[in-house]
Amino acid sequence: MSLKKLLRSNEFFLFAIIAVMCVIFGFINPAFYSVANIFDLLKSMVETGVLAMGCLVVMISGGLDLSFMAVAVFAMHTVSRFFGEYYNDAPILLLFAVGALIGMLLGMFNSVFVAKIRLPSFIVTLGTSNIIKGFLLAFIGSRQINKIPAAMIGFSRSNLLTVESVSGNANLHAGVLVLAGAAALTSLMLNKTMLGRSIYCIGGSPSSSERVGFNNTRILVFVYAFAGAVAGLVGIMHASFQRMSNPFDLVGDELNVIAAVVLGGPQVGGGYGNVTGTLLGVLLITLIDNSLVMLRIPTFWQKATMGVIIILGTVAQMYRYKKSQQSGKEDTHAS
To answer: Which of 19, 102, 311, 324 keeps 20 to 30 A from 28, CA to CA?
Structure first.
C-alpha cells in the first residue's frame, strides 16, 4: 500500500483519533499511562472484540445480526446451570466448546430464515433475539447462578503476565489470547481462503456471487453459525469474568459492538471490512468507555458522550468514503 493510500485509509484515521485521545486522557490523568490501566483496557477489549469478529463477518456478507447478545446469554446461562449442578469439574475447553456449539446451533436457526426464506436479517435476528430471551426466562430461569463450574472461576484468575508496581501488581488476563486467536482466525479465513472471498462477494452482489458459482445459501449458513459460535464462546467468558451467570447481563450492549465494527470500516450494504479496522474500532470504543469512568464522569454523561462519538465517527467515515470515491474518479479521468 502506498503512503498516499495509507494516509487515506480508515485504519490510519482511527489510529490518529486513538493517539489524540490517549494524549488528552493522559494529560488529564497521568494514571492513564500506568501498566495496570493498559492491562485493564486490554481485558475490557476481550468480550467486545471477540463478538465484533462474528459481527464483522455478518456485516461483510451484507447482513446485520441483532441476536448475538441473546445467544451469548442463553449459552452462558445454560452451560453455567447444567455444568454447575451436574459436572462442576468440567474442563474449561469443554465449557467453551459446548457454549460455542449452542451458539452455532442458534446461529444456524437464524440462517434458515435469512438464507432459505430470504427474509431481511435485521428483522429475523430482532425476532429470534426475543424468542431466545423468552425461552430462556420460561424454561431455564431468570435467577442468577452463583454456583458456576470451577474451571470458569479458574479461568477468571488466569494471567499471562504480572508486573509489579508502586500501586500493586498489574495482571494481564489470559482472555487476551482468546481475542488474539479469534482475530487471527477471522483474518486468515477472510483473506486467505475461498470461503472468505465468497463472503465478500455475496456482500458486494448476491447475484454476481451466484453467477460465479458460489452457493449463497451455504455461505450464509456458515456466516450466521460462525457469529453464533463466537457469541456462545463470549457467554462462557462473561460468566467466568463475573464469576456468576446473570440472565440480564449483556443486555443493551449490542450497539457498542456494532458501533465498533462500523467504525472499523464495514458498510451496512456489505462487501467491505477487515479485522485490523475492527480491532481499532473496538479499541476506540473501549478507550472511550473506560477512560470516562477513570475520569469520574457521571454515568449519564458517559452514555451521552458515547452516543455523540459514535454518530460523529460514523458521519466522518461516510464523508471520508465519499471523498475517496470522488478522488478515485478524478484520478481515473486524469489518466
So the answer is: 311
Where the chain has pLDDT below 70, the residues are 1-4, 6-7, 266-269, 295, 299-300, 302, 306, 309-310, 313-314, 316-317, 320-321, 323-335
Note whether 262 and 102 are within 8 A (CB).
no
Element (H, E) at 160: strand 159-165
Phi and psi at 298, nearest 5°, equal: -55, 150
The answer to whether 89 and 149 have CB atoms below 8 angstroms apart is: yes
65, 66, 110, 119 from 123: Cα distances, Å: 9, 9, 10, 7
193: three-class secondary structure by DSSP: coil
What are the percentages of helix, strand and coil residues in the chain, rounded to 5? 75, 5, 20
Q: Which of 152, 142, 102, 139 is nearest to 247 (CA)?
A: 142
Give, as one character, the DSSP assignment of residue 143: S
